[in-house]
C-alpha cells in the first residue's frame, strides 16, 4: 500500500515535510497562492474529503480489517493531503508544528492527570 515497503520505509520529520513542501510550491510558482487563509480553506476541503470516506460506514474497527486495499489506499491519500496542508499552513504562519504539538501534549497531560497506573510512562513523562 505504501510507496516503500515497510522494511525500506523511514521516519519523516515534520521539518523535512515542511522543507519539501516549500520547495514544491516554490518551483511551481505557487507561493503567491499559499496565504494562511487559502491554505486553511484547502485544508478544510481535504478534511471534508476525509470525512466522506467514513460518512456512511458507522463504527470502524481499529486496523480497518474489513476494508479493501483500494479503500485503505484512498484513506491513506486523503490523510496525507490533510497532513501536507497542515504542515504547509504552519510553515507559512512561521510556526513549529512539531514543537507546538509537544507543548500541547504537555498542557493536556497537566489538564488531564493520570488517575490510574495503567498509563504508559511515555505519556505521563513528556519532555520538551
Provide a quick synopsis of the model.
The protein is mostly helical and about 130 residues long. It has helices spanning about 15-25, 35-55, 70-90, 95-110, 120-125.
What's the helix and strand layout?
Elements (H helix, E strand, L loop, with lengths): L13 H14 L8 H19 L14 H24 L4 H15 L9 H4 L4
Keywords for this entry:
single chain
Characterization of this structure:
The chain is mainly alpha-helical. It is 59% helix and 0% strand. The protein has five helices and no strands. α1 crosses α3 and α2 packs antiparallel against α3. The chain is globular, with a radius of gyration of 18 Å. The model has no long low-confidence stretch (mean pLDDT 90).
Distance between the termini: 34 Å
Q: What does the average pLDDT come to?
A: 90
Report Rg. 18 Å
Stretches with pLDDT under 50, minimum 5 residues: none
Query: How many helical elements?
Result: 5
Oligomerization state = single chain
Which range does the strand content fall in? under 5%
- The rough form would be described as globular
Structural class: mainly alpha
Amino acid at each position: 500500500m505504501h510507496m516503500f515497503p515497510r522494511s525500506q520505509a523511514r521516519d519523516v520529520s515534520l521539518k523535512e515535510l515542511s522543507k519539501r513542501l516549500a520547495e514544491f510550491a516554490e518551483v511551481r510558482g505557487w507561493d503567491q497562492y499559499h496565504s494562511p487563509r487559502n491554505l486553511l480553506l484547502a485544508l478544510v476541503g481535504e478534511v471534508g474529503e476525509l470525512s466522506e470516506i467514513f460518512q456512511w460506514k458507522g463504527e470502524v474497527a481499529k486496523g480497518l480489517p474489513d476494508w479493501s486495499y483500494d479503500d485503505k489506499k484512498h484513506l491513506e491519500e486523503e490523510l496525507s493531503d490533510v497532513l501536507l496542508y497542515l504542515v504547509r499552513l504552519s510553515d507559512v504562519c512561521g510556526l513549529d508544528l512539531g514543537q507546538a504539538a509537544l507543548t500541547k501534549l504537555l498542557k493536556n497531560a497537566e489538564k488531564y492527570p493520570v488517575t490510574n497506573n495503567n498509563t504508559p510512562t511515555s505519556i505521563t513523562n513528556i519532555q520538551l
